[in-house]
Amino acid sequence: MLKKILLVLVASIGGYFAYKKTQQSRADKDLWAEAVDPVTPGR
Questions:
Q1: For residue 42, with 0-12 CB atoms within 10 Å meaning exposed, 13-18 middle and 19 or more buried, which class applies?
Q2: Phi, psi of 28 (to 5 degrees)
């Protein structure tokens, strides 16, 4: 029983870190896209 609880806990922590890594990657991608976005003159 304790092994199952530990397995679920470790899987949850791993999923959390994977989620945070995905969010950070998406934020970096959005920031980069904004930084290199071409600006049209006169706007």
A1: exposed
A2: -65, -40
pLDDT in tens, 3-33: 999 999 999 999 999 999 999 999 999 999 8
Q: What is d(CA 39, CA 24) in angstroms, rounded to the nearest whole number?
A: 25
Alpha helices for 1-43 (secondary structure H): 2-35
- Most distant CA atoms of the chain, gap in Å: 67
Kindly report the pTM of this predicted structure: 0.66
Tokens of 24: 């950070």
